């Protein structure tokens, strides 16, 4: 495996970051996860835009401009000969001495890791996955705003530990007011009384790119969508539940705590429509002309 590290593509073994990197010492940094379908990075511009937003929210200046970042992603994919992949782009505050002051770090560390995509088991999509509502609450948006896709994932990890203890795949956290927010790596949707519901950005969530697409598709297909504040009881009384993210796409939920759901028509329809959206995006990018892959084949 080849990894991009600060301007160079090197074998994974040589892709080593200092123990004085503030990403390691303090979780001081940001990241994005992208998915590549047939050589095309899905929603690349949106992910890059969100990366810069996260950077700006923590006062971090990304050393590369957007075009150079995009080229570096493609170069890393080409170096690994991967056309269906997972991309993890990380920018940390960089190497400094011990101390919280960001000015101790001269230069951010930029890393791009790409991996062949391990598809989720088909049974997950056919039967749904189990989720719980954990005791761990989502970070206060006034403390560490979940809109920042930061390296500080301990809040989510604590919830994930609870999920694992209860044999569940995902944990959907409440906020400090007891309202539903999001999963540890995903956004939440549920269908109830003819309404497709999802917690609003104000509840303290990452405004997922997949979530945005699903909301758009649902409205286009004539579904009524409500982005708002919801309680655990709203979720318990739902007819269908699903979660979304870049790698999972639209994943049905069969259980929330002790409540059982059967993956239904709305979830299936939205997953199919999401796939069509991906295919249309990929065809569109390809139709625009030769890609960086063509020069490397
Ligand atoms: N996670 N909420 C959280 C806390 C997330 O970490 C993610 C994504 C999402 C969904 O965002 P999107 O639809 O843009 O992928 C929501 C990625 C997949 C990760 O951590 O690797």
Explain the overall architecture.
The chain is of the alpha+beta class. It folds into two domains: 2-116, Aminotransferase class 4, branched-chain amino acid transferase, N-terminal domain (D-amino Acid Aminotransferase, Chain A, domain 1, 2-Layer Sandwich); 122-282, D-amino Acid Aminotransferase, subunit A, domain 2 (D-amino Acid Aminotransferase, Chain A, domain 2). It has eight helices and 14 strands. The protein has helices spanning 22-26, 44-57, 66-79, 122-127, 154-165, 209-220, 232-236, 265-287, and strands at residues 2-5, 8-11, 29-37, 40-41, 85-92, 109-116, 129-132, 170-171, 187-192, 195-199, 224-228, 240-245, 249-256, 259-260. The strands form two sheets. Strands 7, 8, 9, 10, 11, 12, 13 and 14 form an eight-stranded mixed beta sheet that branches. A six-stranded antiparallel beta sheet has the order 2-1-6-5-3-4. Strand 10 (195-199), helix 6 and strand 11 form a beta-alpha-beta unit. Helix 6 crosses helix 8 (265-287). The longest helix is centred in the C-terminal third of the chain and has 23 residues, at 265-287. It is globular and about 55 Å long. The relative contact order is 0.14. The mean pLDDT is 96.
Brief synopsis:
By secondary structure, this protein is α+β, with helices and mostly antiparallel strands.
Keywords:
six-stranded antiparallel β-sheet, D-amino Acid Aminotransferase, Chain A, domain 2, 14 strands, D-amino Acid Aminotransferase, Chain A, domain 1, eight-stranded mixed β-sheet, about 300 residues, alpha+beta, binds N-(5'-phosphopyridoxyl)-D-alanine
């Amino acid at each position: 495996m080849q990894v991009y590290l600060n301007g160079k593509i090197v074998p994974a073994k040589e892709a080593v970051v200092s123990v004085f990197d503030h990403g390691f010492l303090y979780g001081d940094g940001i990241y994005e996860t992208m998915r590549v379908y047939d050589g095309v990075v899905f929603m690349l511009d949106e992910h890059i835009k969100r990366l810069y937003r996260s950077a700006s929210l923590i006062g971090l200046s990304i050393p590369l401009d957007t075009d150079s970042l995009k080229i570096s992603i493609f170069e890393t994919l080409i170096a690994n000969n991967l056309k269906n992949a997972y991309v993890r782009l990380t920018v940390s505050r960089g190497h400094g001495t011990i101390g919280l002051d960001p000015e101790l770090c001269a230069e951010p560390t930029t890393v791009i890791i790409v991996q062949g995509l391990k598809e989720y088991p088909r049974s997950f999509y056919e039967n749904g996955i189990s989720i719980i509502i954990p005791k761990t609450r989502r970070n206060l948006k006034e403390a560490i705003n979940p809109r920042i896709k930061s390296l500080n994932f301990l809040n989510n990890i604590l919830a994930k530990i609870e999920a694992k203890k209860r044999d569940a795949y995902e944990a959907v956290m409440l906020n400090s007011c007891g309202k539903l927010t999001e999963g540890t790596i995903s956004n939440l949707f549920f269908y109830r009384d003819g309404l497709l519901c999802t917690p609003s950005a104000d509840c303290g969530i990452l405004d997922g790119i997949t979530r945005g697409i699903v909301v758009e598709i649902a409205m286009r297909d004539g579904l009524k969508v409500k982005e708002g504040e919801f309680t655990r009881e709203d979720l318990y009384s739902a007819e269908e539940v699903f979660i979304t993210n870049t790698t999972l796409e639209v994943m049905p939920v069969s259980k929330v705590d002790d409540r059982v759901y059967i993956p239904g028509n709305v979830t299936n329809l939205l997953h199919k429509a999401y796939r069509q959206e991906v295919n249309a995006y990929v065809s569109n990018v390809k139709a625009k002309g030769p890609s960086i892959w063509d020069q490397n084949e």
